[in-house]
Amino acid sequence: MQVRVRSGGHDYEGISYVSSVVPYVVIDLVNFRNISVDVPTKTAWVEASAQLGEIYYRIAEKSRTLAFPAGSCPTVGVGGQFSGGGYGMMIRKHGLAADHIIDAQLIDVEGRVLDRKSMAEDLSWAIRGGGGNTFGVVIAWKLSSVQVPATVTVFNVTRTSLEQNETKPVHRWQYAVSKFDEDLFSRTYIATINTTNGDIAIGTTFTSLFLGAVDRLLPMMQETFPELGLTKQDCIEMSWIESVLFFAEIPVNTSLDVLLVRTSQGLISFKGKSNYVKESIPEVVLEGVWKRLYQLDARSSELQFSSYGGRMNAISESSTPFPHRAGTLFQIHYAVFWVEGIETSKLYTNWIRGLYRYMAPYVSKNPRDAYINYRDLDLGVNNLMGNTSNYHQARIWGAKYFGTNFDRLVRVKTAVDPDNFFRSEQSVPPVSSW
Does 387 score more than 80 pLDDT? Predict the structure, then answer.
């Protein structure tokens, strides 16, 4: 029977809880939620179905100057995010979540419970970015937390197409990000919006986390990105844990207990895709993106540019299976949303695939990289039954997600699960399945 492993939330293609192969079994880790924080050693044991908001809350409960560098959405489950690398608002200062995993408890295909001492070092490497539902069932992770200042600074600055040439600041942002101090993370959202007078415009929001006070941030922004026109009034100083609420679009005066709430975010359909950018995208190309955004209803589509560099440039691409390190300017996340039926689904998925094709010449090539945690089955599907005819197909998506690390992941899979018991549409295959 096909086995799926579910651990907390936000599975882009739903393969942690559905299967085209029936009958199938879901191993639901929903009750594996315990978090134990040890402040003197700056470590924590976190069970696989804890959500990011719960980790942030429990660490802040013990110390307001310790944190963990993972995602910005509090309801993401850690089992999925850590197994795919996991990036967030401190990536330029501290790297990925997976870069701070120091131990794990994994149940292998033989039913043994292994930790870092008892599992092979290659297996310990593979689970920190090689994707979920592939090598076994991770039931807990040991994290090393990071130091954060007592005061951080955040801002959201929005520009619309009705105010100015909206592509100009986005174009200049690309050149600025490589000059930013590693204490500064910057993200740019480009989306269709409804204006107050009922018009449709393209809204561009520049949002940032700075690990320090506003008086140090402003001169830096004026030197590296004067086109934004950032002012002190745009900025808010707060604690790091309050910034978690800010970036989750939760009012910062809300009780931190909201981070412990595990509720559905509502039903909505969407399709997501991703790319990495190594050279700045020409302004004329951005203008073409704007034209495509205007083809859709307001609030239905979004591009998200997330800055890389800083600490990521100093970490080897083979240190974990996540290879998108030095030389990456920023990551693009494409998303389109809808609430209607099948015909609308075709309209919107065809639209985002068209945008993705349009961007091909302007993103990384050979391979055209993608992020495993923004899983995209358009990239090719591995054969669940291990048919040898699908080897080359697995190589296509494997190289996009993992680069040259894919071959090492295959060797690990072959050693620990040669019969391919743990598998999905895009799990790493063993050699025996070729």
Answer: no
Mark whether 24 is an active-site residue.
Answer: no
CA distances to 116, 338, 365, 416 from 1, in Å: 29, 33, 38, 19
Give residue 386's pLDDT.
45
Note whether 251 and 352 are same-domain residues: yes
Instruction: Work out the percent of the chain whose per-residue pLDDT is above 90.
Output: 79
Assigned token pair, 44: 């924590």
Whether residues 119 and 176 fall in one domain: no
Q: Which domain holds residue 121?
A: 2-147
Q: What dihedral do alpha carbons 312, 313, 317, 322 form, nearest 10°?
A: 20
Amino acid at 431: V
Number of neighbours of residue 365 by Cβ within 10 angstroms? 10
Assign residue 37 the CATH number of its domain: 3.30.465.10
Annotated catalytic residue within 87, 308, 362, 374: 374
Tell me the pairing of strands 2-6 and 24-28.
parallel
For residue 187, which of 209, 220, 215 has the smallest C-alpha distance? Answer: 209
pLDDT digits (tens, 9 = 90+) for 24-72: 999 999 999 999 999 999 999 999 999 999 999 999 999 999 999 999 9
Q: What is the mean pLDDT of residues 172-198?
A: 89
